[in-house]
Specification:
- The protein is an alpha/beta fold.
- Strands 3-2-1-4-5-6-7-8 form an eight-stranded mixed sheet, with helices on both faces.
- β7 and β8 form a beta hairpin.
- The longest helix is centred in the middle third of the chain and has 23 residues.
- The protein binds NADP nicotinamide-adenine-dinucleotide phosphate.
Length: 276
């Protein structure tokens, strides 16, 4: 049976490669991202290359109202269930900014949005005993959980906040994996490796752009990363929570701290409560 796969951040880098990969396999792909014209371009490219229609939904994750509309559309059109949610969108803006909802930008886009899509789409995933796969990063190993500053708003430093949100991606999935009420779905986090994408060139300084291009010069092509997602989607029920290059991968032991997981979970529920 055809799988229904929701991919966030589908307009460049890893998300674009994933959309192309699963569309080529004739799966039903629903791409969610902030740029209408980039979504349209990818839809047209996939139609031309594979003669497959993918669905695109515009939503900027700096707006919970926009995310709520996107989720409502998915719930209405795919009421029979979805098989996979790939939480992939993320950003590393250099300057500290707040979203229209009043949260630190990365905290909302990289973490709250992931939690919101996961929790809201859980009922659809449950129907199919589906999977949540979040694109995390080994950058999480540089982060520490700060009970006093979970949102990481004190002394904002772009990469520091990014590392924390990537730790939250893993911790949130680990937390849900242990809850009985989420036992019908499997939660995985993937470290894609160092990948030649645009992420370090968006909302960053000239110097940082230069650094990112040098840093990723010998990195993976985004198409090289899809194998791990493919493996998790089609070769069922791996017990490990964190993957890299199709293999279980070590992660920061602190992520297993159940007290911190619970603090993160409770704060997240509180922060997204107004839109549920
Ligand atoms: N590249 C690496 O070396 C690397 C390493 C480890 C982990 N990762 C992870 O891989 C994932 C994909 O990143 P990438 O490297 O492929 O970067 P990318 O090419 O910049 O892709 C990021 C995607 O997220 C979307 N996005 C950004 N801000 C958004 C917002 N406010 N609302 C909705 N969508 C938004 C982008 O949309 P636009 O096209 O409009 O910008 C794009 O589709 C991220 O989770 C990242 O943390 C990347």
């Amino acid at each position: 049976m055809k799988k229904t796969i929701v991919i966030t951040g589908m307009t460049s880098g890893i998300g674009k490669a994933l959309a192309e990969h699963f569309a080529k396999k004739q799966e039903t792909v629903i791409g969610v991202a902030r740029s209408a014209h980039r979504l349209e371009d990818i839809k047209t490219m996939i139609k031309a290359k594979y003669n497959v229609e993918i669905q695109t939904i515009v939503a900027d994750f700096t707006s919970f109202d926009a995310m709520q509309k996107a989720i409502h559309q998915i719930k209405t059109e795919y009421a029979k269930g979805i098989d996979v949610l790939i939480n992939n969108a993320a950003t590393v803006p250099q300057k500290k900014r707040l979203t229209e909802d009043g949260f630190e930008w990365q905290y909302q886009v990289n973490h709250l949005a992931v939690a919101y899509f996961t929790l809201e789409l859980y009922p659809l995933l449950k129907v199919r005993n589906g999977y949540v796969i979040t694109t995390g990063s080994d950058a999480h190993t540089r982060a520490r959980f700060d009970v006093e500053d979970i949102e990481a708003v004190k002394r904002y430093q772009a990469f520091r906040s990014y590392c924390r949100t990537k730790l939250y991606n893993l911790m949130f999935n680990l937390a849900l994996s242990q809850k009985k009420e989420f036992s019908k779905v499997r939660f995985y986090t993937v470290h894609p490796g160092r990948v030649k994408t645009e992420i370090g060139t968006k909302d960053t300084s000239f110097i940082y752009k230069l650094f990112w291009r040098l840093f990723t010069r010998k990195g993976y092509d985004p198409n090289d990363t899809v194998d791990t997602y493919d493996f998790l989607v089609y070769q069922k029920n791996h017990p490990a929570p964190y993957f890299h290059l199709r293999k279980a991968h070590n992660y920061l032991i602190d992520a297993d701290d159940t007290h911190h997981q619970d603090l993160l979970y409770q704060k997240t529920l509180k922060d997204i409560a107004a839109w549920r």
